[in-house]
Amino acid sequence: MEPRIAMKAAPIAVAFGMILGAASADTIQLPKDKAAITAAVPDAWEAKESGDGILAESPDREVVVYFELVGSDKPLNSITDGTLKWLAEDFDVIADLLTKKEKDVEESSRQWNRIFWSGNSKAWGPTLIGLCSTDAGDGKTLIITYWIAKMDNEKSLETLGKVFASVSPAN
Length: 171
What we know:
The chain is 20% helix and 46% strand. By secondary structure, it is of the alpha+beta class. The termini are far apart.
């Protein structure tokens, strides 16, 4: 089973356009032993290694984000299928495949491919599910998968936008 990062269905331009504010954040790096990419997640979030990536969850468990690097030659369809299966099995989050939308965007000189769906969680009800990918260099692609509860999601969307805006190459 391959964990994948599901990203919010909010407009990516809004999500990526936000700049990290004064709130403190922990920096995660992928891969951990020789970082190619870094991102900041709020201090209050639990971030831990999981599978081939890093899983980050908000304290209220309404936002789940998974970061991983895959070979650039790996077909996006297989990544997407694995992601949706993982979300269903590990989080009871089911995507409505008929709501799938895809969009390419550029933010801060980084090109992103974004796929998103509406979904449902047994625990949280209606959800937004997303999978974003961007070139990480050296033949790798960064995949960020997220899911977020739709109920009262404005704050969660803002925080998620800050996480995405923080993605950068490791120095």
